[in-house]
Design brief:
The protein is built from ten helices and no strands. With 338 residues, the chain is an all-alpha fold. It starts with 14 loop residues before the first helix and ends with a helix.
């Protein structure tokens, strides 16, 4: 880099300086970043795959029991949402081995690379929308319990989940042109310039993350505020406390999993559109983006905290409304005497 005087201001770049900066940007190497990420991915993705596969299969099995038992209809809506979230997480888990393999070698078929990228991003944004709708559904149930009770039927919630699948599949259309007409590329790398255009990037960033995060932040904060305000007015504070923990866990998992990734997307957008040209900065952004994507995959394991608090909330509510043994014994005695 050229030195600057302590009092002087840099003048406009000359033709030689501009060509030197352009060549420096083009010759910027990311091989060290890629080599480091190979080790990190192995250390993170292998346990994520094993734990995520086990935990999400158990979650699907656990919430399915609440759907099969007709005497617990109040939990059907939440159970359907949770099963949908677990399926998206399971789809992400199953794509991880292919992501690790194809990110380091050239795919034998371009369509295989596209398929793996589709599964990966569909599972990511499917989780985003599902968590957003879970938060909205819970807020409406807390704020307007009598008005929305008819809107939480299993059939309508199932329809919402199907709509989420349609939206994320339709939103995956730009993935088919991720690499454009490039002949040599590896999956999840070497994206075409069109992928980072404003027409593709900003709708993805706004509708795929910023808007769901705003909805979830508002619904979560209002729900917690309402529940805390009812502390002295309800006898089921233990159950309400479990509900607060469920909301807080969902919000924390959402922010930790998806905020760094989309910040990395924004920084990479600035790089690919020429706003950031310094080699060191580009290397750091590439490393940050790949690390954030790598650790966001742990989301499929972190969601187990949401499952845990929801199932705990279900069981506490069931126990609270189940007649105790002390109440049942006198009733049986009176019946036998009669």
């Amino acid at each position: 880099m050229t030195s600057r005087g302590s009092l002087g201001c840099p003048g406009p770049p000359t033709g030689d300086n501009m060509s030197w900066q352009l060549n420096r940007s083009q010759n910027c190497s990311f091989s060290d970043v890629d080599e480091l990420m190979k080790t990190v991915q192995l250390a993170v993705h292998i346990p994520t795959f094993l734990l995520g596969l086990l935990l999400n299969l158990l979650a699907i099995r656990g919430f399915s029991t609440f759907l099969r038992k007709r005497r617990w209809p109040d939990y059907a809506a939440t159970a359907i949402y949770m099963i949908n979230l677990a399926i998206f997480d399971l789809l992400l888990v199953l794509s991880l081995p292919f992501k690790m393999a194809l990110a380091n070698v050239r795919a034998p078929l371009p369509s295989l690379c596209t398929l793996v990228e589709c599964f990966y991003f569909i599972s990511m944004y499917g989780s985003v929308f599902t968590i957003c709708f879970i938060s909205l559904d819970r807020f409406l149930a807390i704020r307007f319990p009598f008005l929305v009770s008819h809107l939480r039927s299993p059939r309508k919630i199932f329809g919402i989940c199907c709509t989420i699948w349609v939206l994320v599949w339709a939103g995956s259309i730009p993935i088919y042109s991720f690499h454009g007409k490039m002949e040599k590329y590896t999956c999840f790398h070497n994206m075409s310039d069109g992928t980072w255009s404003a027409q593709v990037f900003f709708p993805l960033e706004v509708f795929g993350f910023l808007l769901p995060m705003a909805v979830m932040g508002f619904c979560s904060s209002r729900s917690i505020h309402i529940l805390v305000g009812r502390r002295g007015l309800t006898q089921d504070w233990v159950q309400q406390k479990a509900c607060i923990w469920t909301i807080a866990a969902s919000l924390a998992v959402f922010v930790v999993s998806f905020l760094p990734v989309h910040l990395g997307f924004f920084l990479q957008f600035l790089v690919r559109n020429g706003f950031i040209v310094e080699c060191r900065a580009k290397q750091n952004i590439s490393l940050f983006l790949q690390l954030s994507m790598c650790f966001s995959n742990v989301n499929c394991c972190l969601d187990v905290f949401c499952y845990y608090f929801v199932i705990k909330e279900f069981r506490m509510d069931i126990m609270a409304h189940r007649p105790s043994r002390v109440q049942l014994v006198p009733q049986d005695t009176m019946t036998s005497r009669a």
